[in-house]
Write a structure and sequence with these properties.
75% helix; transmembrane; single chain; membrane
Length: 351
């Protein structure tokens, strides 16, 4: 386990993809800075994270997948924004949506990393924002601008680089059987919904940090891998928040925050496929700069850092428990048995 924490994995990811991802996130930010609306720029930058769903080595396939994910991103944000009017309803909505996202992506065979994570992250952020019916349309619009910018950049980037890899076969994704998919989707939904509910019960300032951390930990491919990710996330977060606190003590400017996000996004995409634990250090810094309002970053860094570590710790613990359920054979057997019973009953009364 200790070897896994610090091991650097080999990868065939192109060196220029992290740079492209960094610019996709930075361009909306810089536009927000130029138009004196940095919060709208940050919202658009979150939408631009759809660039991470570049998956195919064929131009048509790549753009089709990216367009599907783009609509999914916008829909995720819209669902969250519309249903944020009642905090006690939000855990149920997020649980149902997480279930639907995981089930649908498996049916569409879109399970390669980052998989379901960013769809649920976007919905978690939107559903935890203060509900204001008059700003929903403009928020969705700002978010969509970031998505559009990322798709445009991805198109021109793909035209330039795919000449070199056109003959390279796509990665084959094994489709899960319907019962396994259903069970996993139920576990994801319940765990993420519970994470948001706990955050609300604890009256956390920004409750979306808990389900996001929970989802990040549950991305592991085995039970052992999930526990390793939980340990990496807690340790990496501790170091990353310490570095963030140090940077914020320098009274960083708004332009400095924009440049930091550009550099951090590039570093994260370079490291995340090589060592998740080290990448988490920079992920923690990036998410703080990207998701927190500037007034919190500049005005109260000490309070901010302490609360964020508590949020992420809670989310990681819940995610580790959810991961245990995700790979527990008896839970899968029991759920499959109940699904079969339900199917038989529905057929019986359907006739």
């Amino acid at each position: 386990m200790w070897n896994q924490l610090f091991k650097f994995n080999k990868t065939d990811r192109a060196w220029h993809l992290p740079v492209v991802a960094g610019f996709c996130v930075a361009i909306p930010l810089l536009l927000g800075f130029l138009y004196n609306d940095i919060e709208a720029g940050k919202l658009a930058s979150i939408g631009a994270l759809v660039i991470l769903y570049i998956q195919s080595n064929r131009l048509v396939n790549r753009m089709m997948i990216l367009m599907v994910c783009s609509f999914g991103f916008i829909f995720s944000f819209a669902i969250g924004a519309v249903f944020s009017f009642n905090p006690w309803l939000t855990p149920v909505i997020l649980a149902l949506y997480t279930f639907g996202v995981h089930y649908s992506l498996n049916r569409l065979e879109l399970t390669r990393p980052p998989g379901n994570f960013f769809f649920v992250m976007v919905a978690s952020i939107a559903i935890s924002l203060r509900h204001n019916p008059t700003t929903i349309a403009s928020s969705i619009g700002n978010f969509s601008i970031g998505v559009i910018i990322a798709v445009m950049i991805a198109f021109f980037y793909s035209i330039l680089v795919l000449r070199e890899v056109t003959n390279k076969p796509d990665v084959i994704v094994l489709q899960k059987n319907n019962y396994l998919n259903m069970t996993e989707s139920i576990i994801f939904g319940i765990t993420v919904g519970l994470a948001l509910l706990i955050a609300i019960l604890l009256k956390l300032e920004n409750p979306y940090w808990v389900p996001i951390s929970c989802m990040a930990v549950m991305q592991g491919v085995t039970a052992k891998h999930i526990w390793i990710r939980a340990a990496q996330r807690v340790l990496g977060t501790f170091i990353g928040l310490g570095l963030t606190w140090f940077i914020l003590q320098m009274r960083i400017t708004t332009l400095g925050i924009c440049i930091s996000i550009l550099l951090l996004q590039t570093i994260v995409e370079f490291l995340v496929v090589r060592n998740y634990g080290i990448a988490v250090i920079f992920i923690s810094m990036l998410t703080i700069f990207l998701a927190e309002p500037n007034m919190n970053l500049i005005g109260q860094p000490d309070h901010l850092i302490a609360i964020r570590f508590f949020d992420i710790l809670i989310g990681s613990i819940i995610g580790a428990a959810g991961g245990w359920m995700l790979y527990h054979e008896q839970i899968h057997f029991f759920t499959k048995k109940q699904l079969l019973k339900t199917k038989v009953i529905m057929k019986k009364y359907g006739h």
